[in-house]
Amino acid sequence: MTGRQMITDVQNTWCPGCGNFSIQHTLKNVLADMEKDGQSLDNVVLVSGIGCHAKIADYLNINSFYSLHGRTIPVATGIKLANPGLTVICCSGDGDCYAEGLDHLLFAAKRNIDITVIVHNNRVYGLTTGQYTPTSPRGFKGKSTPAGTRENPFNPIELMLAGGATYVARGYSKKMDLLKTLVREGINHKGFACIDVLQICATFFPAADYYSSRVYDMTEHDRSDFTAACAKAREWDYNGDAPIALGTFYQKSSPAFEEKMAVRNKSAVEREQAVRDLLKTRT
Amino acid sequence: MNEVSVLVGGKAGDGINSAGAMAAQLLNHLGYRIYLYFDYPSLIRGGHNFAIVRGRETATGTCGMKVDFILALDQETVERHKDAMKTNTAVIFNTDVVKAPGQGIPVREILAAEQAPVIMGNSAVIGGFAKAAGISWKTVEDVFSSHIPKGTDQNLRVARRAYDMLKTVHPIPPCDNPPIPLLTGNEAVGLGMVKGGLEAYVSYPMTPSSSLLHFLAEVQEDLGITVVHPENEIAVILMALGFATAGKRAAVGTSGGGFCLMTEGLSLAGMAELPIVILMSQRTGPSTGLPTYTGQADLLFVQHAGQGEFPRLIVAPGSTEEALYWSEAAMHIAWEFQIPAFILSDKTLSEGTYSTDLSRIPVIPHGNPVVWDKTTPYRRYADMPSGISPLAFPGTGGAVVKVNSYAHDESGITTEEADLVAQMTRKRLRKEEGLRQAMDRYPQVTVFGNPSALVSLLCWGSTAGVCQEVAGPLGLRVVRPVVLSPFPIESLKKALEGAGMVIAVEENATAQLATLAGQHGITCQKKILRYDGRPFTPELLREKIREVLS
User: Fold this and answer.
1) Would residue B101 count as lying in a domain?
2) Which of A40, A75, A86 sits opposite B238 (nearest CB)?
3) β-strand B67-72 against B276-282: which pairing, if any?
4) Domains contained in chain A, CATH given
5) Which of B236, B266, B393, B541 is packed most tightly, with the most Cβ within 10 A?
6) A chain contacts of residue B408, beta-carbon cutoff 8 Å
7) Tell me, what's the ipTM?
8) Tell me: the pLDDT tens digits for B165-193?
């Protein structure tokens, strides 16, 4: 199917000013470019979790799996292992994959499965109307923590570097050119790619001024240098006041999990024979 | 009827299971039908392990309390199993570590004479057993050549020394059967799944399901399947659903605790209409319970697991033949109806070794998956009269495949519209009507023994063997539903026709099948329940039946 209408007719229910619009727009443009480059979008699968971000599965007119909260990555891993010819993209939330599904995220990085995870990191639970997430700053006053949280946020960039991710980047929903570059790079990267996207939640965490006054593009950074990547990742800890680096922290070429797991398919006849041979060894 | 029982005991790490397997193969080659039960605590070294090999002229699936031979690899074996001794039980032991009446084998001395490694010590014991049982040296050679491919000659020399030292005290008469494959329940489940087209097996280790993971991992190259061991059971089932989404036949395996973690994924499979086969192998619960012991306490859990209402297939095979048949069938049925399908097993079946008579396995009357014919725009959840929507997989030209965990419309787009939600609920449930009709082509309920007997045992799963063995001579009927969902009420009523007394026999404390049957108007007048982690023995069951009938 070529020249498809990229956006479905489904009524969009994101709040006005929501950062999800930027991410969807970016993804749509990246997909359109891929199609222009001769790649069939029939071979693209989007997997989303549960949360505001996840509605993108209804809005984008491509193959999709609207999964459970926290469970984008295992589904995406299964799809990719089953058919390595597919391009598999996960749109996931910060509550989704830094809380409920953190184990899956770390293991996907560890395995280097060739999927691209875009984290819509608005640092608050939106759809459940405003509770703190693993990346909310300490002291965040949400509905479950009216006096402010008493725990520090995760630094997902550091987590991903520790987990072994071979492409780690941070974008910002108000820097769309850079975001498009990162998403395209992530998809083209052969291996596990994680892009943490600082995203505005217009209703529960409207942090645009905070981000806009602190973000900068990493220009001098050597993305192949793991130590430098770790240092850069620690510059801002998602809590204190510091400059916020945007761009690619780290990239490394390494065999992907699905390549290492490839099994030669057997015909039905070969299988029958294998079963018969096996039964002989048990007699 | 010829029958013989051999108990092999020792410490964990002594290779009891493999020594038992060799004894089982010797009996197999004498024409006996085998059941091997392996009893072990949840630890790696030390602790008491024992295997009981039971050989009978006709099929068996249970072990008795008394044995004809005891092969003792440690002193505890002799002490602990005194109750298993008959007046003529032959005890064969390793004189290095055991003092007992019977015939001793100086294992260390034999190994030294043959310059053989310690690991070959059990070959001496097996050689000694063969002689004590009057098994021909030719048979020993055949079995060692087939089942010890590495170092066969040295093992045979070790065995021969013990064979020459011992006297024949308890000759086992050969039976008129050819040897047939010995398989564990889990191996049979795996091979059945493979015959049903399995392409990926995903599992996290949990006794008593783990041996299926190990088995399929070992043979994955030969069979051309992908085997994945992910971070936890949540990932297991979601990954398998990813495989199904991409068009690959996938299965998972676990036990109760792991299945608890899978239930959100199970419900997703129900809502998103993704085919998946689940081996749920029960052990003693609740919670961690007895990891290496058996139980049948998860029937109602599996029946009801997962939020919401959706059709599911549950089958509980009672032998390796049934495990082969039903695992293959479950794979086909899961894909025909796009539903989750359970193989409900337990420790007794999963880890027990059975003679497997392939000639007894009938042809499977399965249908085929409905596939998109490309004549109309693709809608993943098209509302067909059967409730079954044609399948297409991502990568199919012209199809946008939208799979959804939310309530959705026919295209797979989320909806909260009342009429549509109700319509799609009916669509999913309509599949159960078709499933019920399809299941009428299958042997859903088995009847054994005297079909017109007034007293019938009602059992399920691995207790098949013990119930059949006990009921036959007592002239009772044994009715056993193999399919437990959709519950085969008509077939079950027919099978129980004329039975004035129905006795439920189950390895749980609340009689779960009896509860289920009761919901459909079938009353069990009596219940015989065991829930200490151990399978029924024929002796115990016979005694309990006498009690309830007196």
Assistant:
1) yes
2) A75
3) unpaired
4) 20-280 (3.40.50.970)
5) B236
6) 66
7) 0.97
8) 999 999 999 999 999 999 999 999 999 99
